[in-house]
Design a protein that fits this description.
23 helices; Cnd1_C; elongated; ARM-like; mainly alpha; Leucine-rich Repeat Variant; single chain; Radial spoke head 14 homolog
Length: 347
């Protein structure tokens, strides 16, 4: 005869790691207390609950006011990898909101996170890179990363990380930091490392590396290094890339690098004029603008001016070309006028 009994196992639909959270005004204070618990599972459960709550900016603001940020900083040093993973996840979710970015700056989270750049857990590092990428969406965030001396470590991680997703996140962070100040990066071998990324099979990595080089080339030191490390022939090659935004960013990087004489002649030797002229017909306005300005730089060299004289009608047409957005039409027309004036210059 069959007998009934009580199983010692949890029902299959019960998650043992799920936490029962207090409701209302007690939710965050309770979780904040549990973050400090000696019990590992309690800390883990509290972090999982916070991952859900931190999607709401109001909860982020409350968390700042009750001391959560300092407790999260302490948990970044926890011996348990799952605790570190969930802590970095909470932080990158917070960094996606403006109030969370403010909390990062107020509580020096940027530096605390940096000690996990070499964490053995890939998930932990991914969360860290996501947090930095979110933070630099505002200039103060980029300035904070620069001021903490983290550009050099990020440049080396760009070279060392095998996962392409991680490389993309690091590039996203570096692009905006380099826009603010490229000095530390230029002292950290960034140009040859970005040169390697230009030949990646991943179109996003190629595009972001070209965009980073655009920002690097704003300074004269950056322009010189782009020439010194023979980056220009690769950028010219990318003008024929099958991906539109890769071509656009390559033209943008050339636009700055060709300001100096070495850049002009390196690009002429690499036969940049042809693909740049083709880019004038791109559906992307920014690509056309970058190409026009790069060609203007080449026209400053007698050899470039001679070739481009046959293409003045193309620029003349751009001078009167309409656009549904007046400011874009004005930018293109002004760039075309300057190009014509340089091409038709008589020494």
């Amino acid at each position: 005869m069959a007998q009934s009994g009580n199983s010692m196992e949890l029902p299959i639909n019960i998650n043992a790691a799920q936490v029962t959270t207090a409701y209302g005004h007690r939710a965050l204070p309770k979780l904040n207390e549990e973050l400090q618990s000696e019990d590992l599972q309690t800390r883990q459960k509290a972090l999982m609950a916070l991952c859900d709550l931190m999607h709401d900016p109001e909860y982020i603001y409350k968390a700042m006011n009750i001391g959560c940020m300092e407790n999260l900083k302490a948990l970044l040093k926890d011996r348990n990898s799952m605790v570190r993973i969930k802590t970095t996840e909470v932080l990158y979710i917070m960094a996606s909101h403006s109030v969370g970015r403010f909390a990062f700056l107020e509580h020096d989270i940027v530096l605390a996170l940096s000690f996990l750049l070499n964490d053995p857990s890939p998930v932990c590092r991914r969360n860290l890179y996501k947090a930095y990428m979110q933070l630099v969406q505002v200039p103060r965030g980029a300035e904070e990363i620069i001021s903490k001396g983290l550009i050099s470590p990020l440049v080396w991680k760009l070279q060392g990380e095998v996962e392409e997703e991680f490389q993309e996140l690091i590039l996203d962070t570096l692009v905006l930091c380099l826009w603010e100040d490229a000095t530390e990066a230029l002292n950290s071998n960034v140009v040859p490392i970005l040169k390697q990324k230009l030949i990646s099979t991943n179109e996003n990595i190629r595009s972001k590396a070209a965009r980073a080089l655009l920002n690097v080339s704003i300074s004269r030191v950056g322009k010189k290094q782009v020439c010194q490390f023979d980056v220009i022939p690769i950028l010219v090659h990318l003008l024929k890339d099958p991906v539109e935004h890769v071509r656009s960013n390559a033209a943008g990087a050339l636009m700055f690098a060709l300001v100096i004489t070495e850049g002009k002649y390196a690009a002429l030797e690499a036969e940049a004029i042809g693909p740049l002229l083709e880019l004038l017909h791109s559906p992307m306005t920014v690509a056309r603008l970058n190409a026009t300005k790069a060609l203007t730089m080449l026209a400053e060299a007698p050899e470039g001016r001679k070739v481009l004289q046959a293409h003045v009608p193309t620029f003349r047409a751009m001078e009167v070309e309409p656009h549904e957005k007046p400011h874009i039409a004005e930018a293109l027309q002004r760039a075309a006028r300057i190009a014509v004036s340089v091409i038709e210059f008589k020494p």
